[in-house]
Design brief:
39% helix
Length: 64
């Protein structure tokens, strides 16, 4: 209902980066990547990676 309309044919066009121009302000939620519970989970993960700068979290999850 609110936010950016997503296009499933070109998902990167509507991708929102969790980093902002303001220091120490990061975005997360369903409108960054995808809608729904999966979108919230993936954007939270992307925000964690943006804050820590450590992508080993993704590797650990994929190998679990």
């Amino acid at each position: 209902m609110y936010g950016i309309v997503k296009n499933y044919k070109d998902p990167l066009r509507t991708f929102i980066d969790p980093r902002t121009k303001l220091p120490n302000l990061y975005l997360t939620g369903q409108n960054l990547n995808m809608h729904g519970i999966l979108g919230v989970s993936l954007s939270a993960l992307a925000t964690c990676v943006a804050i820590t700068g450590n992508e080993s979290i993704i590797e650990k999850i994929s190998h679990a």
